[in-house]
Amino acid sequence: MADRKYEEAKLSELKKEYSKTKHNKATNKHLGILRAKIANIKREMESHSRRSGTGYSVRKSGNATVVLVGFPNAGKSSLLKALTGVDSKVADYAFTTLDVIPGMLEYSGAKIQILDLPGLIQGAHLGKGGSMKIASVIRIADFMLFVVDINSYQQVFQLADEIGLLNIRINRKRPRIRIEKGRIGGMNIEPNGHSVPTKDVIINILNEFKIFSGEIIFYEDTTEDMLIDFVADNCVYMKGAVALNKIDTAEDRKVEFVAREIKARTRMDVIPISAKTTSNIEDLKGSIFTALKLVRVYLKPKDGAPDFENPLVLDSGSTIVDVVRKINSKLISDTKYAYVSGPSARFSNQKVGVDHTVMDGDIVTLVFS
Ligand SMILES: Nc1nc2c(ncn2[C@@H]2O[C@H](COP(=O)(O)OP(=O)(O)O)[C@@H](O)[C@H]2O)c(=O)[nH]1
Ligand SMILES: [Mg+2]
Fold first, then answer.
1. Domains, the chain, ranges and CATH?
2. pLDDT tens by residue, 273-309
3. Structure confidence by residue, pLDDT tens digits, 63-111
4. Ligand 2 mean position to 171 CA, how many Å?
5. What is the CA(273)–ligand 2 centre distance, in A?
6. Could you say which of 104, 149, 229, 273 has the lowest number of CB atoms within 10 Å?
7. For residues 6 and 16, what is the distance between their CA atoms, to the nearest angstrom?
8. Does ligand 1 lie within 6 Å of residue 241's CB atom?
């Protein structure tokens, strides 16, 4: 693909220029444009690789998907085994064409898919030569678990940077900005009292993405990088945490110190574990489960007992409609209302409409017409 070659050359040229440019007030504007250009090219490359289907195919299953990322020997395979029982060493995966090894963690009524990506992270650089492929797998996840060997914990900082370069944003939300394109002349900037980049920088970034007129409204403090993420619209946002592994090989004092440093620098939660002795593995399961904010709903027939054995597991923010969809989407139009007891109800057996938002632990009785 000639296109691809051109894009890669252009990208590396821009990156080179970016890294050569000194960062100061005078070069700020130039750097902003470069960053926007880089984001723009990356977006095009990604959409091409998606269309040509070069990504690995992984089927999502279960209620949520967690991907393990880490340097070789950090303990990913051992952790997959500790969490799910799947032994990726049984077959010599290193010499097979298997790209992804999935396991299933059952926890508190939820099924959480765990993916190990052996061989994808080679040497010091995540995804050397194949970062787009890796990104395509990682991007389907709901949660990223960084697996780090405490004896070489500095690697996590490099890993986190590289994940950022793949346009994956951990523990952040899509920037709250609105752009209304206009037909005639000029951009109106509405910072709404928030701290935002200078007018020049905003206009340059927007122009780079071919937005020349209209209004841009900010709903939160916004950095230049956030603005580029928003206009390029090429990022995925997911939750993440760090499993600090092999704590059986370090003193408690070191574990505490390292955990604190990682948390301070990455703003991710750090769960110290040993995949080998399985110490703290239950804590880790609990942390993942809590972070996923899954909602378990127990169905109750009108004159019967709730089924506490088989909860329906939904994403947070789900409504009665989503509950019905989970059972059978054909029933949606026949659903009249529901009775709810539990966290989302103001009182027991509250009658609610189909737009009612359910919460973890709710007991729901559906009423069909
Ligand atoms: N002492 C200790 N060794 C571990 C632990 N977890 C993994 N290992 C060892 O570290 C090596 C690499 O582990 P592996 O799970 O294959 O790492 P991967 O390359 O990230 O999949 C193996 O020899 C494991 O036995 C742990 O918690 N403590
Ligand atoms: Mg492995």
1. 2-54+175-232 (no CATH), 64-171+236-292 (3.40.50.300), 295-368 (3.10.20.30)
2. 999 999 999 999 999 999 999 999 999 999 999 999 9
3. 999 999 988 889 999 999 999 998 876 555 444 445 678 899 999 999 9
4. 25
5. 17
6. 104
7. 15
8. no
